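User: Hi! I'm working on a homework problem where we have to compare a predicted structure to a textbook description. Could you give me the structure for the chain below?
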Amino acid sequence: MKPARRRAGECAKLLEKCRHPADPMSYWKKYYLANNILEALQVLASTGGKARVIAGGTDLLLDLQQGRHSPVDVLVDVNSIPEMNSIKISDGMLYIGAAVPLNLVVSSPLVKKHAQALKEAADLIGGPQVRNTATLGGNVAHALPAADGSIALLALDAKVEIASCAGRRMVLMTDLFVGPGCSMLRSGEEILIGFYLSLIKVGSASAFQRVMRPQGVALPIINMAIWIQQDGERLSDLRIAIGPAGRIPCRAFETEKFLRGKKYNLDQIEGAIDSLLNETHFRSSPRRASVEYRRRLASMLFRNVLSSAWDRACQETVIEE
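Assistant: Happy to help. Predicted structure tokens:
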């Protein structure tokens, strides 16, 4: 049995176990295993918006069980769609299908080479059992302000491919999110197909780190990803993503502007930290941390992640030379 189809079967069995036999209304009425994008879209269209796409199901299943999501008519399983389960170089870009489970993102040599920040982020989502099932597309589509996958993809300037019955479109990660738990993806009508990322160049590198509660609760107090392009002693270009620092996954555009073209030294880094703290909007959370604590962590995390990305860019330059 092919891995994708085996995962689909396991997902269906897990969902079946989670029905409540005593309840007159189950969480869903029908379960459809799609073989291609067109099939999946046709099923979605036929239900008038009452179907939902499922791959790993680690978020959707909990939402259904805990009453955060109303029952659905049809679950459309996309695990058997080859296009959504591949990691490859396509048209000079790194392509990652939205249904690729996180453990395969972590173990992919292509992701490690071209998108180190994403590898590091995916390796911290949930535990090993979750990563064996949960998908990168699900992590992004859930649209949480501190989703590790989203933060890494923002720093990597990823493009998102979305399909509907009207055709396909490409959306920048910076345009994807519209509010907490809400993206521009039209639920029940559109499918997130995959992500496109630029390939690594000489002097470029990325890094991701996060701070989480020591009790092992898989919720980041704060996380950050940085991509840089090095030019000698200068940061010729960079992208910084941080969460949770607002209502949506956040790009630190003003801090990027402050550092762009400047030398990599202590004075510039301290100035960038001031800029970062001025443009981010942390809030206190009883389950995570206070504003004051997050601001202190943001300073520390910025130094560490930028240093890691800089060191990797130096190594990449040496290797290429």
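For your comparison, note the following. The longest helix spans residues 291-320. The radius of gyration is 20 Å. Good luck with the assignment!
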